[in-house]
Description:
Layout: E1 2-5, E2 9-10, E3 14-17, E4 20-27, E5 30-33, E6 37-39, E7 46-53, E8 56-59, E9 63-66, E10 72-79, E11 82-86, E12 90-93, E13 99-101, E14 104-106, E15 113-115, E16 126-131, E17 134-135, E18 142-143, E19 148-152, E20 163-165, E21 170-173
Parallel strand pairs: 1-5, 2-6, 4-7, 5-8, 6-9, 7-10, 8-11, 9-12, 10-13, 10-14, 12-15, 13-16, 14-17, 15-18, 16-19
Antiparallel strand pairs: 20-21
Amino acid sequence: CSGGSGGGFSSMRSEGGGGTLNNVIITNNTASYGGGVSCPILSSPVLQNVLIANNSANYGGGINLVQESNAILRNVTITGNQANISGGGVFIKLGSQPSMIDCIVYDNTSQEIYFADQVYDWEEYNTITISYSDLKLGEDEIVVGDHGNVNWLDGNIDADPLFADPENGDYTLQAGSPCIDAGDSNSPYDYDGSIADMGAYPSSYGT
């Protein structure tokens, strides 16, 4: 699909809300803003067990968050997305404050996570809170500019997640992936009773 904002999905404008996505695949979409997902003004959707892969946009190849959009991402995989200008994985603008738990953000171009410099006096800074997630090159890959804050909490890693076969669209985890059993111990356990994995797909190799 293609669109001006949110090639795959655009959240509702709703202060404190914005809908919920569970067990969804968003791939091969294009847009000017948010090739995969766009979160417009005052939208705060919840994304859980969602794959966002191989989407493209000028800003936010994977996800675009604008003006106080405070999305909650849990067990989301963001990979292979491309931005022509900024934010291959995630683009954050105008006081948005998303959070990531048990997520994978890996191999997006250019930049995995990018904060826009634009800010107004009435806004809070852009802020991202990340825990128990795999981000390529770690905290150093988050481009915050002069108007961003990063809450880099426990459990984060920067290792290759070892997807099974990404070239053919298989983003499950191989045996030996550092993302297996590496999620937050307070998250719901995987279907096999093991500690939560990082990413959209629970692995069958959990201990």
